[in-house]
Amino acid sequence: MILIPVKNLAHAKQRLAPLFDQSRFDQSRRTELAQAMLTDVLEAINLWTNRPPVSLVTDDAFAIELARNLNLEVIPNAGAKSETDAIEMATRLCEQRGSKFSLVIPGDIPLVKASELELIVQSASPEGSVLVASSDQRGTNAAFRSPCGLFPLRFGNDSFVPHLAAAKATGKPCTILSLPGIALDIDTPSDLQQLAAAPGESRTQRLACQWDLTPFATATNDR
What we know:
alpha/beta; 7 strands; globular
C-alpha cells in the first residue's frame, strides 16, 4: 500500500513563510502551492498502471476531496500530532489488513513520476526496504518496507541517515535509489527555483512560473 501523509494545508510550508511574506506571498499562496503539489503527486500516481492501493493519511478537507475525486482511500489521522504518528497509525492498519508492503511518500514532490514509484517496488526484495533521499540527502522522500512495519519511520529534517541505519539493523536487504523526480521536495526558496527551472509543465511548475522569484534568488545569494 502507498501511504501519503498530508498535514493541514491551511498552515503548509511554514519554512517558506519569511520570504513569501516579504514578497507578498502570504499563507494563501503557500496553501495554493501545497495544494498544487499534492494534486501533481496524486495525478502522477494515478498514471501507474496496476498500482497498489493508495491511502492519504489526513484530516485536511482539500486532500480528502481530492482523494475522493481520484477514487483514493482516506485514512483519518485521528488527530495525530505529527507525520511520524500518522504513519505509525497507518502502518498498523496496513498490518491488520495483511498488506505485503508499505511505500510512504510525501505530498510535496511535484515532479514525481509513476515510473519512479514502479521502479521502487520492482527493486525491492521480498523482505527488505528501499529508500530514496531528498535532493539534499538529509530527508527521506520514499520509504518502502516489506513487511509493512519492518522498522519504524521517524520523519524530520534529517531522517535519511537514521532510516538507513534502522533498515540495515533489520538484517534485510536495503536498496538506495536516486530518483530525481522524487528527490525534489519543496521546502526552501532554492527548491522552488529549481522546480521552476526544471523541464516539464506540472501544475506546480506553472504556478511557480507565474510568480516573481527574484526576491528568492536575492535572499538565497545573500546567505
